[in-house]
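User: Run a structure prediction on this.
Assistant: Running it now.
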Amino acid sequence: MKLVNSLLGVWTVVVLIFFYLPIAILIGFSFNTSRLNIVWAGFTLDWYAAIWRDAVLVGALNNSLIVRDSFRQGVEDLCHDHQLSSTSARRGSAGAGSSTV
């Protein structure tokens, strides 16, 4: 059983490296001055500044934030309505003189 747990732990580490190493490499090369990202040419933040000058990307971000806010408001409304209905259902089902445990 100890061997199985060790193998599962090693497999978990291998899978996590497989998933997260490409993301880490991508983030690292996003600071590269080279347009091709094959060879490290130097450090820059110019690519991140260029994102904010792209009207299409800024518009897409704006739409995403609008959808997020609408969804959040809908969930809050549903939770609030559920709390109100749960509270009134508990009060109504208890009846006069009965106690709830």
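Residues 55-94 form the longest helix (40 residues).
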